[in-house]
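pinging the channel bc i need a second pair of eyes. not urgent but kinda urgent?? the chain im working w is below, pasted from the shared doc
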Amino acid sequence: MHYEARGQGEPLLLLHGGTGIGADWRHVFPTDPPGYQVIVPDLRGHGRSTSPAESFTFRACADDVRRLLEHLGVERIKAIGMSMGAKTLLHLSTAHANLVDAMVLVSGTPRFSEALRAAAKQFTREAFANLPAGEVEALRARHVHGDEQILKLYDMTRSFATSYDDVAFTPASLGRITARTLIVHGDRDPLYPVELAMELFRGIPLSALWVIPNGGHGPIFGDNAAAFRTEALSFLRPNSPS
């Protein structure tokens, strides 16, 4: 598992989205937030991390992160996760509540929507073979272990279409989360309707909800990055209200 740990201070874990890489956070945080030891992994099968033999699950992804933190001697974290990263944090914070002090979930969901399942079905190996050359080269530049790594990421994404037990957070399981939680969601997310963010908000005890007007999936880049930095870092501060 490739990771970078930079700076000194309270541990801040940044988890990227599906088919992304840890370096994507530079589009949100051009410089590391001061006062933190920033921990930025490439999640399993992504970027410079290798692809395990077993099929991908978010539960296993969360266990990878737990083992990484154990390796670093980190006992308690603050964290930001986007999409895949948010689902990973949901698993981490429900299974190991004492590990997560506060977190920001961007475009998270308690379960897969039908829109996501329909989109996931399109990620076939044939679809990869028919990508324009420029898109293939962009993927190869990000995921450096060859085309088989990228094909496994396609397999991973396609598997979401028929997965029902990995991302299946109930009010009871969400109620086990003790971390202060900011839920960030675009009201125009084509994959996860904003109603799913409301389910997270109602289920997680110490949660706040920020719905971004006209925001799509992962609405924290580009023109939204500065506002997100301000709100997310303010929320993560120790004395921030729940």
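so The first strand starts at residue 3 and ends at 6. and The beta strands are 3-6, 10-15, 36-41, 77-82, 100-106, 180-186, 207-212. — does that match what u expected or am i reading it wrong
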